[in-house]
């Protein structure tokens, strides 16, 4: 998985490319270590180029979301494809993540 | 079509095997949703067998059998671990479990496949995906 970073004002945009699965979950979580040292971090994760997720990927997302919450940070997702949304809904973890269809919508939510 | 494979208990190698099996299954003409679901279930079941079954012990093997005909695709995965009671696995969608960062693999398999059975003390999982219906959809 490739992970790119951008900053839009005070919001960190994290663009993922590749599968979020057992292989990439560790790298994904490591990415957030420096961000978790901040307080009130605002993070938008772009899923446009994520074609697949498994239970390890879901677990990594939950861990990051919870850890951000501990430092008063916030996280939301955008451009999540329908198959992945379906996996979130099956497992009911969609209740844990704010999801938006565009950057603009997501940015407005912070 | 029949695929039979004996795998080492190395989780890092699992995705390579899964991609190779999906390539071999392409002639079945599965649609995107079926490929996604099959890949998800193969990944979850294989990782369960390697990590939770065989505890990543490289001296232990995992056997995979995939049998497909025009009506259905059956996958059987067997490990050499201690086994487990599939009925005792907590429901990951229960309110107290939704935020946990584990325990969704078997649930995802049960929700995705047409039929799922455990045997051999939980060491063997058999999952069946019906292949009838529209295979052109799901794009």
What would your notes on this structure say?
The complex is a heterodimer of chains A (110) and B (139). Chain A has 110 residues and is of the alpha/beta class. Chain A has 4 helices and 5 strands, in the order ββαβαβαβα. Chain A has a single domain, classed as STAS domain (Transcription Regulator spoIIAA). In chain A, 35% of the residues lie in helices and 27% in strands. In chain A, strands 1-2-3-4-5 form a 5-stranded mixed β-sheet. In chain A, α3 (82-90) links the parallel β4 (74-78) and β5 (98-100). Chain A is globular and about 30 Å long. The N and C termini of chain A lie far apart (26 Å). Chain B has 139 residues and is an alpha+beta fold. Chain B is built from 3 helices and 5 strands, in the order βααββαββ. Chain B has helices at 14-24, 32-53, 105-112; strands spanning 2-8, 61-68, 72-78, 115-119, 124-130. The two termini of chain B are 25 Å apart. Chain A binds chain B through residues 21-23, 52, 54-56, 58-60, 62-63, 66, 83, 87, 90-93, 95-96, and chain B through 11-12, 14-15, 32-33, 36, 39-40, 43-44, 47, 92-93, 98-102, 104-105, 107-108, 111-112.
The CATH topology name of chain A reads Transcription Regulator spoIIAA
Task: Find the CATH superfamily of chain B.
Answer: Histidine kinase-like ATPase, C-terminal domain
Return residue spans of chain A where pLDDT drops below 50 for at least 5 consecutive residues.
none
Helix content of chain B: 25-40%
The coarse overall form of chain B would be: globular
| Number of E-type strands of chain A | 5
**What's the number of structural domains of chain B?**
1
Order of helices and strands of chain B: EHHEEHEE
The CATH architecture of chain A: 2-Layer Sandwich
Sequence-ordered SSE layout with sheet pairings:
The complex is a heterodimer of chains A (110) and B (139).
Chain A: E1 2-8, E2 11-17, H1 25-31, E3 42-49, H2 55-70, E4 74-78, H3 82-90, E5 98-100, H4 103-108
Parallel strand pairs in A: 2-3, 3-4, 4-5
Antiparallel strand pairs in A: 1-2
Chain B: E1 2-8, H1 14-24, H2 32-53, E2 61-68, E3 72-78, H3 105-112, E4 115-119, E5 124-130
Antiparallel strand pairs in B: 1-2, 2-3, 3-5, 4-5
Helix pairs in contact in B: 1-2, 2-3
């Amino acid at each position: 998985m490739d992970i790119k970073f951008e900053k839009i004002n005070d919001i960190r945009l994290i663009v993922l490319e590749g599968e979020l699965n057992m292989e990439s979950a560790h790298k994904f979580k490591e990415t957030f270590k420096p961000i978790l040292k901040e307080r009130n971090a605002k993070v938008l994760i772009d899923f446009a180029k994520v074609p697949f997720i498994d239970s390890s990927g879901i677990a990594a997302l939950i861990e990051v979301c919870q850890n951000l919450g501990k430092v008063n940070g916030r996280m939301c997702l955008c451009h999540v494809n329908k198959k992945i949304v379906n996996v979130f809904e099956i497992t009911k973890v969609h209740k844990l993540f704010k999801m938006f269809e565009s950057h603009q919508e997501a940015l407005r939510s912070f | 079509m029949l695929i039979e494979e004996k795998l080492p208990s190395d989780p890092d190698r699992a995705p390579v095997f899964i991609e190779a099996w999906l390539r071999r299954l392409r002639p079945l003409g599965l649609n995107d949703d079926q490929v996604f679901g099959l890949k998800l279930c193969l990944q979850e079941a294989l990782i369960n067998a390697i990590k939770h079954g065989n505890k990543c012990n490289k001296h232990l093997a995992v056997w995979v059998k995939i049998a497909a005909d025009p009506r259905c695709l059956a996958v059987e995965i067997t490990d050499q671990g201690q086994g487990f009671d599939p009925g005792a696995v907590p429901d990951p969608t229960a309110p107290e479990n939704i935020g946990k960062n584990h325990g969704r693999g078997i649930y995802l398999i049960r929700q995705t496949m047409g039929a799922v059975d455990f045997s051999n003390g939980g060491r063997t999982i058999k999952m069946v995906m019906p292949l009838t219906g529209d295979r052109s959809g799901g794009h």
